[in-house]
Amino acid sequence: MTGIIQNRDVFMKNIASQYGRTSKKEVKRPQWVYRPQDEVMKSASTDDLLFVLKEHCKRIHTDFYQTSVSNLPTTLRYVINEFGGGRIILPKDDRFMEYGLSESMADHHVDVWDYTKGRENIKLAEKANIGITFSEITLAESATVVLFSDRNKGRTVCMLPKTYISIIPKSSIVPRMTQAAQLIRGKVETGEILPTCINFITGPSNSADIEMDLVVGVHGPVRAAYIIVEDK
Amino acid sequence: MPMKIGTENFKERVDSGIQNDFMRAAVSGAQERLHGRRLAAAEELGNWEEWRSHGEEIRQHVLENLDYYLDQLAENVVKLGGHVFFAETAEDANTYIKEVIQKKNGKKVVKSKSMVTEEINLNAALEEVGCEVLETDLGEYILQIDEHDPPSHIVAPALHKNKEQIRDVFKEKLGYTKTENPDELTAHVREILREKFLHADIGITGCNFAVAETGSISLVTNEGNADLVTSLPKTQITVMGMERVVPTYEELEVLVSLLTRSAVGQRLTSYITVLTGPKQVHEVDGPEEFHLVIVDNGRSKILGTEFQSVLQCIRCAACVNVCPVYRHVGGHAYGSIYSGPIGAVLSPLLGGYEDYKELPYASSLCAACTDACPVKIPLHELLLRHRQVIVEKEGKAPISEKLAMKAFGLGAASPMLYKFGSKIAPSAMSPFTTGTSISKGPGPLKAWTESREFPAPNKERFRDWFKSRDKEGEKS
């Protein structure tokens, strides 16, 4: 269903008349003179990027783990226990099965996002102690994981639980937000419909609003962990 | 609250700022930390000047073609099923938003931090029609429950309050029983607001940048409150200043990088959320209905003028964090939600010279703001231009210019002005004072101190000294 635009004409006329011209109907996006973003970690190898990401995790109060595919279930079980176990919520994502992760969570109550249950999912996410997702793109520079929402991947899986674990396939690591923006823009250019929510998440939620003292854990998770997994 | 805050005049506001010791210590501490972090974040990139130039070229291109990009943005939003309302005035915006909420029979509104909604005084408009409106950014929430205390910094709105004051406000308003420990204070707010998020029917956000090509809006936070505001309520209303648009995701990325580094010295903040339209069929969380309100409210009148570059602003407050005048008078002295150098340029343009003609004089023209700006707005030049316009219009400068001048030189000519000038001088000069002389003075003193040293203003004013000397004389 198409939405409605109101008051556009007067508004546009005001802009054009300030410039003493008629409304612009065609503008070509320029070739920018400067492109400093391409220079950042230009010739870094994946291991270099991994090092940057690992180092930055210290600054964003995020636990860092690195593991192999075969050890991932053990590592995940360990991190879940570190975070106090309890209820877990997952998006509906085949990768949990592919990586053999159900055994890691066998001792805990696990809910999987099921859109047919509607807003019941939100209640389950709110009750959960741990939310776990895979990162679609991972930014080394800022230690940021990128999530794409869809009907199987609720936005609040990473927001409502008390703690958050991100599983990061090593191949998802790029230097910085520049490459993520290009990947996403590539989707736009091929006519793909963008996810309604793309979330760039960098560690747990925090605030320095009281006397500039950092408090970790405000509205979102109070703790976060990244598990880097070597690709299969 | 509207853009204009308080009823005191400029001198009274400056006075109460200067007399507020906690606030001044907090402000200078915050300035140093934020400034230090920003410098570190800029330096580690190695080519910060190129980043600034890129930011500038993007912002300039967008402003020159603003109608094109806004049109493209609007078309893409409605294609996704969202609605767009172009609001010429604050009143237009508030009326539309009230209508949307009333149609939905909405009562419970949660908001994430937004300067433009403060500017148009949206909260009051919604409260008038019986809505409960809750700010969910921690700093904004603290101010809101403390009888709508105005913000004093664009990025850290509750900077002027200490944790004991916050604890006392919580005790009085929220029945809080724990200590002034920020972790405990925050945990209490988390608990209260979590419930509010879950039961809200309307979510209202600002917009850091909108992406024309995709019809997306982006929200930059550390707390994650904007994510809950846009995930849980069934209706989302996003309010943006008309200038906050970029062509594509690629420019979004650059401006977000400039914003987070310049505002808080972070490579990225904890949450950068890019939202494209209402939720899709079968998606559970996210709004069913999405409205984008694009606000002019005096901005278009700045386009095509010598002040156009102020619209390049990305609201990072880097200029605020380096300003020696802001350091001493604090945010409330500006009498506007937009404080510091950017506020001194923008407030007279949006709110008129009548209310804000002193602000361009609340500057030493030291140009630290211009150097700090990530999108290269020539802030100190715009302040100077404001002064020229004011003098041309009024035939004379407002009192504050004389104050500043008298404070530094001709003070003895007018007792009242001298008193004020000498009162401010020791503290205003402290960052530049070494011992008893000033080595690197701001503004009017700059040229002077480049070649010689200027005697530092006495910590004890002559008048005070004379008075106490008299008293001592009486004792003996």
Can you characterise this structure?
The complex is a heterodimer of chains A (232) and B (476). Chain A has 232 residues and is α/β, with parallel strands linked by helices. Chain A has one domain (43-229): 3-Layer(aba) Sandwich (Rossmann fold). Chain A contains six helices and 13 strands. In chain A, the strands form three sheets. Chain A has a six-stranded parallel sheet, with helices on both faces. A four-stranded mixed sheet of chain A has the order 9-6-7-10. In chain A, a hairpin with a 7-residue loop joins β11 (206-207) and β12 (215-216). Chain A is globular. Chain B is an alpha/beta fold. Among the domains of chain B are: 47-300, NagB/RpiA/CoA transferase-like (Rossmann fold), CATH 3.40.50.10420; 418-471, no CATH class. In chain B, strands 1-10-7-4-2-3 form a six-stranded parallel sheet, with helices on both faces. Chain B has a four-stranded mixed sheet with strand order 8-5-6-9, sandwiched between helices. In chain B, α3 crosses α12 (249-264) and α19 (399-410) packs across α20 (415-429). Chain B is globular, with a radius of gyration of 24 Å. Residues 405-463 and 472-476 of chain B have low confidence and may be disordered. β1 (5-6) of chain A pairs parallel with β1 of chain B, so a sheet runs across the interface.
Keywords:
heterodimer, A: 232 residues, alpha/beta, Rossmann fold, six-stranded parallel β-sheet, four-stranded mixed β-sheet, 27% helix, B: 476 residues, 13 strands, globular
Low-confidence stretches of chain A: none
Low-confidence stretches of chain B: 405-463, 472-476
CATH architecture of the domain at 47-300 in chain B: 3-Layer(aba) Sandwich
Termini of chain A, distance in Å?
42 Å
Q: Identify the most extensive interface between protein chains.
A: A-B, 89 and 113 residues
Rounded Rg of chain B: 24 Å
